[in-house]
Design brief:
This protein is mainly α. The chain has five helices and two strands; from the N terminus they run H-H-H-E-H-E-H. The protein has a single domain (3-22, 44-166), classed as Helix Hairpins (Orthogonal Bundle), CATH 1.10.287.70. Helix 1 (3-26) packs parallel to helix 3 (70-100), helix 2 (35-65) runs parallel beside helix 5 and helix 3 (70-100) crosses helix 4 (111-122).
């Protein structure tokens, strides 16, 4: 891939990630006592998680099958964006559960808390200052851990491997 095209691709991934973070912090989410709407939100979140999982696994497959060159770089860039999206989907889901069901999480009060918790769960650091306490939160975190191990970790390892091989 030409140097100029590579720079354009890097700018695109940066712009996509910035837009994802802006959406994460700016999308309005109020607590909703209505059980039906909560169930619909939960189903929508689950569908979003499945969509991101399919997107990431598809990009992983493309990355593994891609020959060297421009297609490989574009696939790698899409994979990075998909991984960021996966992290933010879980952070948003954690935040929604914490706001709609008080007591499900301890120490999760803001979107930044949710992002912090999703990152510590993804990286398996788990400091313990924010944790799932209720059954709904624990189910969500179990799904998040499986997703993190199976999908995010695989994708991240491919990104790191490809980037280190380029140097």
């Amino acid at each position: 891939m030409a140097d100029g095209a590579y720079r354009r691709e890097r700018r695109r991934v940066l712009a996509a990630c910035v837009l994802l973070f802006l959406a994460f912090f700016l999308v309005p989410l109020e607590a909703d006592p209505n059980e039906l709407r909560l169930a619909l939100r939960s189903a929508g979140t689950l569908l979003l998680v499945v969509a991101v999982a399919l997107l990431v696994t598809g990009q992983v497959r493309r990355q593994l099958a891609a020959p060297s060159g421009g297609a490989e770089t574009r696939s790698l860039i899409r994979l990075v964006v998909a991984l960021v999206a996966g992290l933010l989907v879980f952070a948003l889901a954690d935040y929604v559960v914490a706001n709609s069901r008080p007591g499900q999480f301890v120490g999760l009060d803001t979107r930044l808390d949710a992002l912090y918790f999703a990152l510590t769960t993804l990286t398996t650091v788990g400091y313990g200052d924010v944790h799932a306490q209720g059954q709904i939160a624990r189910i969500l975190v179990c799904v998040q851990m499986v997703f993190s191990i199976g999908v995010i970790a695989t994708g991240a390892s491919i990104v790191v491997k490809q980037l280190t091989q380029r140097r």
